[in-house]
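This section describes the prediction task in plain terms. A model, or a person checking by hand, is given the sequence of a single protein chain and must write out its three-dimensional structure as a string of tokens. No templates, partner chains or ligands are provided. The sample shown here is typical of the held-out split.
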Amino acid sequence: MPMHDWNKVKAGIFHAIHHEWISEISRELNRTLLPTMDPKNWTRK
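The expected answer:
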């Protein structure tokens, strides 16, 4: 059973919430995880 029933929410509201989730994930990654990654250890495939 899903945690939330998004069928009862207007499309614009869902879009706004979804957009904010993505934005917050991006901000958190840029504040914490990504700056700590060492480019010397990156490999290109």
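For orientation: The radius of gyration is 17 Å.
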